[in-house]
Amino acid sequence: MPAVPPAPRPEPVLPDYGGACIASVVPALVGALAGTVPPPWVPRTVASADQVVLVVLDGLGFEQLTARAALAPTLAGADGADRPITSVAPSTTACALTSLTTGCPPARHGLLGYRLAAEDDQVLNVLRWTVGRAVPRDARRLVPPSTVQPCTPFPGAARPVPVVTREGFGSTGFTAAHLGDAPLIPYAVTSTIAVEVRRLLAAGHRFTYVYYDGLDKVAHAHGLGEHFDAELAAVDGLVAELEDLLPRSAALVVTADHGQVDVGPAVEVLGPDVMDGVRLLSGEGRFRWLHALPGAVADVAAAALERYGDRAWVVTRAAAVEDGWFGGELEPDVAARLGDVALVPYDPIAFLDPADTGESRLASRHGSLTPAEMLVPLLALGGGGNIRA
Predict the structure, then answer these.
(1) 24 in Cβ contact with 155 (< 8 Å)
(2) Which of 12, 32, 297, 304 has the most Cβ atoms closer than 10 angstroms to its Cβ?
């Protein structure tokens, strides 16, 4: 019997920087409110709006939504539900939310992942803004958010954009890095989101930003099964409630930072054949950076390709930059935050960093360049299409 040929390696889904990408959403909405005709990938509903509420549902990929359309009739029936936009590379919260709020590609804002190399081979946990393995330490003095991330949030907005976000996020370094001085309106429970949005609309705010992280938390904890389904149905109810309170000519725009892939226990510790030339790991399980010892980049890349090339894209930092993964050239200080070789799995696996033990417990993950992680919805409701009292 002839041998079965190996399956062809899939092509990565690259971000559509400058086009239908989350990095372009805020500039397009701000422009529409100023009278500029939105680009064709923006739902038509937005063009007639004089107020916009942008809701970011952390972790809702386009593929996950379309597969569960019956559970989310409000989202699935919205303008734009038939076509996705792309996330950024890597497709992870720290990088993607910063691109969303600033309108900048990762190459410009510099927060290119969940864990980034800092001074003296320390690794910065960007979401917690801490360094240190055994005892994490607040890194806001060592790594000041305002110097690490130079792009202005909500560029071009006529007035400060209020941000409705979960209580407790306001004092973090990551909030300072990706939201700057935006006024924060915290919520403790989901039911108060609609209350705060209604107040902001009534006060005349033309652009409001709402961040909700429930879907991502459920996916990480339980995967994409019945818990995720139940959370999606609840989120659809929240979106319907927000739609119902829109005044005339207001639009509710819904997007996400990334999608999800179920990985479960398929977590792999990198083998000694690869690690022999590695001094440090950073990134995350589905976009793992290998920091090579001096002179060992080629050997590390060859060993990683030999060992994992049938399950992951293995790419050097230089090649990823050249192929446009990050949206431009990297300044030297930004390049220093990344490793030399990236392991980016297309199979449902993750590569473990023993220094980040909490990551080993995640059921569903993201960060890679597969369609399930890279494609996200951009939806709109209202915008004069609904008649409100």
Answers:
(1) no
(2) 304
Residues 6+ apart with CB under 8 A from 239: 55, 74, 75, 252, 254, 381
Q: Domain check: are 177 and 218 in the same one?
A: yes
- The C-alpha atoms of residue 232 and residue 99 are separated, in whole angstroms, by 24
| Residue 387: CB atoms within 10 Å | 6
Domain identity same for 29 and 102: yes
pLDDT band per the 50, 70, 90 thresholds, residue 2: low
Say whether pLDDT at 84 is over 90: yes
pTM strictly above 0.70 = yes
- In sequence order, what are the residues at sequence separation of 6 or more whose Cβ sits closer than 8 angstroms to the Cβ of residue 265? none
Indicate if 77 and 158 belong to the same structural domain.
yes
φ and ψ at 349, to 5 degrees?
-135, 170
- Distances 312 to 108, 187, 222, 358 between C-alpha atoms, Å: 26, 39, 24, 22
With beta carbons less than 8 A apart as the criterion, state whether 349 and 268 touch.
Answer: yes
pLDDT band at 388 (very low <50, low <70, confident <90, very high): very low
- Backbone φ and ψ for 243, nearest 5 degrees, come out as -60, -40
User: Count of alpha carbons within 13 Å of 77, Cβ hemisphere only?
Assistant: 10
Number of domains the chain is built from: 2
